[in-house]
Amino acid sequence: MQTILRPASLFLTIVLTLAGASHALAGIGATLAKSPTLERVVDKSVLRVAMTAEQPPFSMRDKDGKLVGYDVDLANALARAMQVDLEVVELPFAELIPSLTGNKADVVISGMSITPERSLRVSFVGPYTLSGKSILTTQRIKKVVKDPLDFNDSGIRLVALDRSTSAAYVKRNLPKAQFDAIDNYNEGIEQLLTGQVDAMVADIPILKLVMLRHPEAKLDMIEPPLSIEPLGLAIRRDDSQFEILLRNYLRAFDKGGLLARLQRKWFEDNSWVETIPED
Questions:
Q1: 167 with 203: CB under 8 angstroms?
Q2: Are 184 and 52 in contact (CB under 8 A)?
Q3: pLDDT at 20 over 80
Q4: How far apart, in whole angstroms, are the C-alpha atoms of residue 246 and residue 234?
Q5: Which residues contact 72 (CB under 8 A, 6 or more apart)?
């Protein structure tokens, strides 16, 4: 599914900060031939960004069906800085990296952790923020399981997002547990709430949202967090022109205060929870 978004007139300070960089983009000239991605973005005046739209607070749809979230705001800021339109390419998480190699997207911005394994397939720009990982389970399970490694038991049923670092964690550290990879978080949440599985491994912001939305289920996270992971923008390998451009934009967003504002908006202020559907 593809959605065309006009970059909103947010982040005026950032736009002014990047005015020089935006004009530089138009003047790259002959060197564009060395970057097919940049050549296409400038020629079509569209930046294609792949994301799942199912990873709150990074990307999700509100009650009006509008795509919102940290990564959505960041993608809009990038497109506006480049003075192009934004095209969001919605895909399951497992199809995000293939969307780059298959030329369906120019960049992936979807709460994606920077890992050595992924870096063999794509290049990362960033990090633009950090995210932690934990295990969400029921009170019944938490009474008997006190440590993450206690989940390494053949009687425990776990789920995690397909081809995610959460799935990799389970396979590496909890090989004895029964494990199923899920296509989206809603699938895993439903299985956890209905007792089909004992726990879900995922990013902490997503697990906190599940707890906020389903207080009656009395779900809880295992402490301490399993990991703290840097999140980055993924692009095709060997595209130094595009990589340098994105790195400069992220640096300007950081210096101009945009990344700090997004952190407060999506990770410290929970008011956005009321704007999204319950199911």
A1: no
A2: yes
A3: no
A4: 10
A5: 51, 59, 88
